[in-house]
Amino acid sequence: MYFSEFKIRSYKSYWETESIPLSLGVNLLVGKNNAGKTAFLEAMQVSASNMPHRSLRSVPSHGDKPSKPSSFEFVISCRQEELRQHLSNQPFWVHQQRGDEDNPVLHFWRWIHEQERIKFCFEGRSGIQRFLRTEPQVPFGLALMLEANSKAAMARYSYDRDKSEISLHDRSSVASKHHFAFRLGMQHLGRVYRFDSVRDVKGVCDVNVSTELQPNGANLAACVQDLQSEGYRRVKHYNELVRRVFPSIREVTAARDGGRVRIEIWKFDGRRDLTFALDECGSGVAQVLCILYILVTSRFPRTILIDEPNSFLHPTAARALMEIIAEYGDQHQFVVSTHSPLIVSSARSSSIILTEIDNGVSELRTIEPDQRDQITKALMALGSRLSDVFGVDRIVWVEGETEQECFPMILEALTDVKLAGTAIRAVKHTGDFDGKDAENTFDIYENLSSSHSLLPTAAAYVFDLEDKSSRKVEDLKRKGSKVGADVERIRFLDARMYENFLLVPEAIKYAIEQDPYANDVSVELETVETELKNELDRRYREHCPDASSQEWEHNETWLLESVHAAEVIDHVFDFVSESTLELRKTLHSPLMTEWLLANEPEKLRPIANLLEEVLARSVGEDGRELPN
């Protein structure tokens, strides 16, 4: 069994949501901080207290009270075999039917056999208050709408699986909560388990406590001890999973200590004297031990709610945990909340739910599977991943990884622009924007941003001039412009490439000295300066055969727009190091940028001004300018 739909009315930041579809396996609940993720998980326990929504929508005037109490409407999907098992375990109550010559419950049983799945719809808050209906509808009126606090005329039956016989026990007016649908719903709610990201799990507890893991994990030690008593195979599997998340932990055991039992964390095989108490480990270890215990020991399907696993785990451990969770996706339903790109990219999710808050009201929206496929393909075409752009408000696509690294450094040092909510990412092949398919390349991003999904809806592009003619530049700007927009989304550096701004001897010397393989290289500034001038002089004479020596120093346009600066700097690296070093743009360009920002920042001022202008004016889906 699992929740197949969930709807929230007037709970915390939610006013009234749509009915959100859920599935077996991993359901990701994504959104920014304070967007309503934790409130959604609380609601799914259907045990929350009445906490009506408070905003201008529910409390329009000062002194008003919220207009409606909290409630949740949800659908539980049940397999045929699960329902048959539930009805066979004990006598079951259905709505009473009189005067039928044929036994309607027998037809009901046959009807169950015809259904692959049956959905039960409920409404409640602190438990189930109302059973609404089944889908498809149970025949003969055996399951009509019921109020939890009312009574109804019912008949009680039992089913003998060995004889395949259904027997009538009695008829009576009984509390609705005894009806088989109510009991089924409450059974599933009892199997919902929520892991809170901030709970403090203790590693010691009394011996004689329940071995059903408590919601706060307080009896984890007793549970692990009980697991040990069930045989080597299960505890071995448990420890194998623990090691996948935490490779440094060899084993987890529980040992008696008087009337208490405590967890032991083994780092070395066979050395109990070197074990650690759980309280000495980080909170993430305890959280993971609880989650894995539930996975290993559950004998029936559960709905497992995990709040922000990224908040208590290292990225490597979080990725390993999500892989394990996915492996149990055919047995359990998981709803995992996160705002972490790592979790989004590593989870093999069956559904993604986006929660957003606007003017104090949280809204839920499902990202459809076909949309997710389009997003993945489009990002691959642009050389990016979902984790690169998830959770940002806008994105600036740039020439390459060098610009992706250096442009944020320039913005931080030379402007007041804050990059919170903005991503600067490299495109995969800038040549894709030059050819006859340039418009299709731009369309890829348009499709991406118009999918109303996790991705930013505003974009800009900043590219190198390379050797493009002015006509080519204008043509690209036209192809990349948005219909109805007066904002240029494609901008070009006033240089052939970014490295043209880095042709400074001191910066080049600094980058060579910082190279990890330059230990034996002696770098003299005079040598760097002389060879840089010689190489530029040689190239300028090729460009203007009649030019006098070092005339290029007065030709700034040539220096910026014509010189292949990366080749020039690479030549200097090669000469100074006697062919032991070469320019690696993603390593050395950030180092040169670092030196310039500290010593000659005005050299990079043109780039800072361009980026500041780009970020101050972005264009939205409707072509309107978006404010910075």
UniProtKB/TrEMBL annotation:
Membrane-spanning ranges: none
Ranges for domain ATPase AAA-type core come to 26-345
Q: What are the protein's GO molecular function terms?
A: ATP binding; ATP hydrolysis activity
Query: Known Gene3D superfamilies for this protein?
Result: P-loop containing nucleotide triphosphate hydrolases (3.40.50.300)
- Which InterPro entries does this chain map to? ATPase_AAA_core, Bact_Antivir_Def_Nuclease, P-loop_NTPase
Q: Short name of one Pfam family for this protein?
A: AAA_21
What is the official name of this protein in its record? ATPase AAA-type core domain-containing protein
Q: Which organism is it from?
A: Persicimonas caeni
